[in-house]
Design a protein that fits this description.
It is a single chain. This protein starts with a helix and ends with a helix. The relative contact order is 0.07. The radius of gyration is 52 Å and the shape is elongated. The chain is built from 12 helices and 17 strands. Among the domains are: 230 residues, Acetylcholine Binding Protein, Chain: A (Distorted Sandwich), CATH 2.70.170; 89 residues, Neurotransmitter-gated ion-channel transmembrane domain (Methane Monooxygenase Hydroxylase, Chain G, domain 1). The strands form 5 sheets. Strands 1, 2, 3, 5, 6, 7 and 9 form a 7-stranded mixed beta sheet that branches. Strands 4-8-11-10 form a 4-stranded antiparallel beta sheet, with no helix packed on it. A two-stranded antiparallel sheet has the order 12-13.
Amino acid sequence: MLTKVLLILLGFPIILPSRIEETHVESEMGPCAHHDDVYGPKPQDPKKKLPSEEIKPTVIDTHRDLGKLPAATQILDSILNNSDYKLRPGIGEKPTVVTVELSVNTLGPISIPDMPLYSQETMCVHKLSCASESLFKEYSIDITLYQTWYDERLRYNGSFESFVLNGNMMSQLWIPDTFFRNSKEIRVYSVTVHSQVVRIHRDGKVLYTDRMTIDAGCSFHMLKFPMDSHSCPLSFSSSSYPENEIMYKWKDFKLEINENNSWKLLQFDFTGVSNETKIISTMAGDFMVITLFFNVSRRFGFNAVQNYVPSSMTTIMSWISFWIKKESAPARTSLGITSVLTITTLGSCTQKNFPRESYMTALDVYIAICFLFCLCALVEFAVLNFLIHNHTRSRASPRLRYPPTRARDLTPTRTHAKQQQQEDIFMYDFEESGEESDEEDGPSCPAQQSLNPSLTQRRRSCCRICKYLCVVRSCDGSFWQQGRLFIHIYRLDNYSQVIFPVTFIFFNVLYWVICFNL
C-alpha cells in the first residue's frame, strides 16, 4: 500500500506540466484550429518573424562620422565670427579686385515699350541727342553672374577644400554691391530655393553666383532701317564704392553662337559681343563701369516682303499707262490715281507699327521715291494731253480775215476811204485741223523749216518753250536738231517707256549700294 502511494506521488508532477502545455496551445489556436476546410493561408504566429524580415544589427562608427561634422561646423563658425560683413576686404590698405564672369542663358525679345514720348526723353539722361536721333527700346536677358574676390578673413586650415553656402547665409558675408546701370527691372529666381550661392575656398577665395532676368534699355538709331544694326549694352558697376576701393576685372568672355541657344530675338540676328571698361565721374567719386555690348542686326526678309516688293511692283504697274492710247483718258487717269493711292497706303501702313521719328529712314526714302515715280507717270499724261490740245487747232475753227489789199491801192488820197471799207466789210475763212493746219499754225520743227521757209516768221510768235517742242504729228525730225533739244510731243509716251524704267533701275542700284555700305 505504501508502495502504490509513493508511485502516485512521483508520477503526478510529470503528467501535470504536459497537460498544462496542451491546454495553453489549444487556447492560442482557438476552436478553428480543429477545422480542416478553412481556405487561404494558415495564420502565422505574430511573434515569430520570417528569416528575410529579421533585422540585422549594423555596426556604426559614431566617432568617425561625427568627427567631420563638428570640425566643419567649428571652422565655419570661426570664419564667420571673425568676418565683419559691414566692411570690405582690405579696407584702408588696397582696393578689392572683383573678377566678373557672365553666362547668357537667353537673350530677347527686343521690343518697344509702351510709353509716351516725354518718358523716352527722361530715359536718355546720358545722351542729349537721344530723344531726337535715337529710339529707346528695351530687351530682356537671362544671365548667371559670377563674381570672385579674395577675403583674407575667410581663410581657414582644414581638410575641407571649400564650403558652399546658400542664400540664407548671405547676410553674414560681405558681398559687392554690384548693380546694372541701364536696367529697368530685375527678377531673381527663387524656385525651388534662392539662386544665390557662395563658395568659400581654403585660401580665402570667394565665388558668388546669382541668376537673374534683366529688362535693360537700348537706344536704336533707325536711320538705316530696315538694314540697321545695333549694340544693346549691359553695364554694371558698384553703387557705393568708388574706383579706389573696388576695381572690376573682366574675365575672358566667349559667347558661342549656335542653334541650340533658346534665344527669342525674333526679327534680329545675333552677330557678336564686345565689352569696354571706362571710368565715370560723379559727385560721389569716380566709378569703374564695365559695359557688355550685344550686337544684333535686323532680318531683312520681313520688310522686303511687306514693303519693298509691293512698292516696287506698284511703281512698275503705273508705267502700263505709257502703252495705253492717248485717247483713253479715263483708263490712264484711273491707273495713275490708283497707283498713287496705293503707294500712299503702303507708306501709312509702314508707319503704323513703327514709332514716330523726327528723321526719315531708308525705307521712308524708298517709298517716297516710288511715290514720286507714280506721280510722275500721272503727270506725264496730263502734260501730254495739255500740249496736244493747246498747241493744235480743232477742226473747222473760224478765223476772221480782212479782204486783201494791194499796195497801189493804198495811196494817201484813198487811205481813209479804204480803212472805212475794211471796218464795214469782213469775211469768214474756215480752216480744217490736221497735218496741214499743224504745219501752218502750230509750232514748226526745224526739219520742216527747210522745206517751208515762209513759216519761220510765224514761228517767232510762239512761246519760248515751243522752240523746244514739236507737235507736228508727221514730223520726221531727230531728237537733237540745230544744236537744240527738241521733244516730239506725240512721242512722249515712247520716251517715257525708256526713261522711267532706266531711271528706276539706276535709283535702285544707287540706293542699295549706299544702304549696304553706309
